[in-house]
Design goal:
Layout lengths: L10 H15 L4 E4 L6 H10 L8 E5 L5 H9 L16 H4 L4 E5 L6 H13 L1 E2 L9 E2 L3 E6 L3 H6 L5 H7 L2 E4 L10 H16 L5 E2 L1 H9 L5 H15 L4 E2 L29 H15 L4 H8 L3 H10 L8
Parallel strand pairs: 1-6, 1-7, 2-3, 3-6, 8-9
Antiparallel strand pairs: 4-5
Helix pairs in contact: 1-2, 8-10
């Protein structure tokens, strides 16, 4: 995601930019929270770019992607011979980012042991490489951490250290999910289409109203990252200069269905489970105009399951 993935005029986005500006001007540790795909790394880059550390490196470490041993080496470095394959001394991210910033993504996934090592570093600023008995150096690094977990809940469950949380949670920035800023989807769509045109030398000039309505009606559990992926695929499928609703095939970008069950009949009889299921499928079927791929996405079922239910409930065939 580019930095402009945080563009928009929703009140939450305007407040977010003010918080980023404040965080850039101070040098405190920052904890960025929010769902997956909302742009936590984008926030870290904006903070670093606006800070007094911008001429030094910004190094990103994904804590969830590495085992404990690899994460320790990635952060603190190692000395020659400390493990098989350690043929030379190696600096870790914290040393390499001296006078700069380290962005620790998914810090909530770290183990208790790693949390202890992080806490020790945050308190003293000292680097001890893996395999060494001595402190190598002291470094001046700003730490920006991010997580999609509820760390307050993790503390009560004993899976995240309270003292580490308070060390990281000096400035807190909470990113809103895309479903809470639907008015910004149009601007984001136009941004991603312009970026697609530059990257692939295409001339997709826009999106038709039905396709845009489908996107703005969807909750986007994957947030801005999911929207970007949906638009990129749709633009690839488009053979003309306009993204149409049909180009969103097999993507979860369709209006949400009203899943209200049928009311009791006049004699007070409650609908059977089959009747409720049939009514829901018919409602979704109508919303997708009989599109099987999109119906499967909305119902959360496979194509064979949908085919069986269409036959069972004698619902007319639609389109592929």
């Amino acid at each position: 995601m580019e930095l402009n993935s945080l563009l928009g005029q929703a009140p939450a986005v305007r407040a977010l930019h003010e918080e980023i500006t404040y965080a850039s001007r101070c040098d405190a540790k920052v904890l960025v929270t929010g769902e997956s795909g909302v742009g936590k790394e984008v926030v870290a880059r904006l903070i670093h770019a606006g800070s007094g550390r911008r001429r030094a490196p910004l190094i990103t470490v994904n804590c969830a992607a590495l085992t404990d041993t690899l994460l320790e080496t990635e952060l603190f470095g190692h000395v020659r011979g400390s493990f098989t394959g350690a043929y030379r001394d190696r600096q870790g991210a914290l040393e390499l980012a001296h006078r700069g910033t380290v962005f620790m993504d998914e810090v909530g996934e770290t183990s208790p042991r790693m949390q202890g090592l992080l806490l020790r570093f945050l308190e003293a600023g000292e680097i001890q490489r893996v395999g060494s008995d001595a402190i190598q150096t002291r470094v001046d690094v700003r730490v920006i951490a991010a997580t999609n977990r509820n760390l307050e809940q993790a503390m009560t469950q004993g899976t995240f250290r309270q003292d580490l949380f308070y060390r990281l949670n000096v400035v807190r920035i909470m990113l809103p999910p895309l479903r809470e800023r639907r008015d910004d989807i149009t601007a984001l769509v136009n941004h991603f289409l312009r970026r697609f045109n530059r990257r692939f030398r295409r001339e997709v000039r826009g999106i038709n109203p039905d396709a845009l309505s489908a996107l703005t009606s969807y909750d986007f559990p994957g947030n801005v990252r999911e929207l970007e992926n949906v638009l990129t695929r749709a633009a690839v499928l488009s053979q003309g200069d306009l993204v149409l609703e049909e180009h969103l095939v097999d993507e979860p970008a369709a209006p949400r269905a009203d899943a209200t069950p049928p009311p009791p009949s006049a004699d007070g009889r409650v609908a059977t489970l089959d009747e409720v299921e049939r009514a829901h499928i018919v409602r979704v079927w109508a919303l997708t105009k009989g599109h099987k791929g999109r119906t499967c996405q909305m119902l959360g079922i496979s194509r064979p399951t949908l085919e069986r239910k269409l036959k069972k409930y004698r619902i007319a065939d639609g389109v592929e």
